[in-house]
Amino acid sequence: MITCSGSRRAGNLAPPERKGTLMRSLPTGTEAVVFDCDGLLVNTEDCWTVAEAAIFAAHGHPFGPAQKALVIGRTVEAAGEAMAHYFGRPGAGTEIAAELLRRVRDELAGGAKALPGAIELVRACRAAVPVAVASNSPRELLDTALGSAGLADCFPHSFAADEVHSPKPAPDLYLTACAALGVAPQRSVAFEDSATGIASARAAGLYVAVVPSLPGTGLDHDWLGTSLAAPELLAWAGELGRETVR
């Protein structure tokens, strides 16, 4: 199993503004990086999709891209409510959420893998600046996913949906992560894969790099790519801690 190691270099960076030296639109003067987990670092979306499809089937409904779009990026509770509404079962959200949690837990127990480039990019960022995970999964599922993928020791700081007042799309998770890292959100970059997560990061004031889990257009972003293994991302990470953005 590949694991993460490295420590951040000391740096003396001025607060970056929305201008200056950019990798496309990501500042090399970034002072912290905060990653989403599901579908971004770890291929847990397959586990979620299997669980979601089973619930839809049990209620006599097909499950395709349109149905996936209803639940992707949401908390377990919010996904349960969305499915209850879709099934025409108002008031059943808590019951469906509990079933979803159980099914996802069972799927994750079979193991989840890091997505291409995830470990390498996290290691490169962590060697230069503080890093954290901000996930809309509950702590139980977040720890399982990071552990299965060999990413648990990459992050001294991780934050789960059940540890903040309001999960994504509210800004709480990203604000909490930046506060723990001691870096202003405006000096930080978020990596996300869903519209829900992007909205959260934007509301908190971070730059946003996006690798979408689902095909589509119109996602708000400062950088958009198809994989964390993109060479320009590693090149950008290699420049962190070396430059002040003026």
Record keyword descriptors for this entry.
HAD-like_sf, Rossmann fold, 246 residues, Haloacid dehalogenase, alpha/beta, 39% helix, globular
Briefly, what is this?
By secondary structure, the chain is of the alpha/beta class.
Description:
With about 250 residues, this protein is of the alpha/beta class. The chain folds into two domains: about 20-45 and about 115-240, HAD superfamily/HAD-like (Rossmann fold), CATH 3.40.50; about 45-110. Helices cover about 40% and strands about 10% of the residues. The protein has nine helices and eight strands. It has a six-stranded parallel beta sheet. It has a two-stranded antiparallel sheet with strand order 1-2. Strand 4 (about 130-135), helix 6 and strand 5 form a beta-alpha-beta unit. Helix 1 packs across helix 4 (about 95-110), helix 3 (about 75-85) packs across helix 4 (about 95-110) and helix 5 packs parallel to helix 9. The longest helix has 16 residues, at about 95-110. Mean pLDDT is about 90; it is low at about 5-20. It comes from Streptomyces cinnamoneus (Streptoverticillium cinnamoneum). This is Haloacid dehalogenase.
How much helix, percentage-wise, in residues?
Answer: 25-40%
The profile of the biggest β sheet is:
6 strands, parallel
- Measured by DSSP, the beta-strand proportion falls in 5-15%
CATH class of the largest domain: Alpha Beta
CATH architectural type of the largest domain: 3-Layer(aba) Sandwich
Stretches where pLDDT falls below 50 for ≥5 residues?
Answer: 5-22
Through-space gap between termini: 41 Å
Let me know the CATH homologous superfamily of the largest domain. HAD superfamily/HAD-like
Q: N-to-C SSE series? A: EEEHHHHHEHEHEHEEH
Overall shape: globular
Strand order of the largest sheet: 5-4-3-6-7-8
> Into how many domains do the coordinates divide?
2
Rg is 18 Å
